[in-house]
Amino acid sequence: MPVMNRRPWVLTGILLGAAANTMMQTVVATILPQVVEQLGDSHLFGWVFSGYLLMSTITIPLFAKLADLYGYRRFYILGMALFLIGSLLCGLAPSLPFLVLARLIQGVGAGVLGPVSIALISVLFPGDVRGKVLSAFAAVQMLSNLLGPVAGGFVTASFGWSFAFYMVLPLGILSLVFIRFSRFREERPDPPELKNLDFLGALLLGTATALFI
Asked: Rounded mean pLDDT of the chain?
């Protein structure tokens, strides 16, 4: 299959991943009262939000750089896998501390997916169509923001709050399949060895960002 013909499949995977990621960012506010009522530990209420926000923010610089060096497709798959594992663990959470930990994992996945999705679009789509693709990406995010609370409330009322986390799994799995099996060439220079990367600088930047947030 020529590379040109693979682009629609890659774009479909990216848009499905964006929908799953964005819906999860908004659905938690709808279901958290039921979660706290069932699991208790209400003093950890805020960490369900802030833990996800912190991890998804402080990991962006590190993983964005690693993806530049070692391949966007590889890190998209890693990010989506972490996001799906975190979503599954959120739904299985027996306590609020466990849920907070699962949200941290989910946040790391989201921190990978955000910049890598934009990078994939920039690499695979030429300038004359890139604007349209980015507009579609933004439209999916906006629509998912609107649908997230509605879908989360309906699913929680019908099946329980755990299924509000599970509902993004089909979207994420499809996204993972599309990206995994849509092979495309990424032109990049030979990456340096991991030991030569500035991990201390990444740690300091992430810590400063976390303190600021």
From this structure: 84
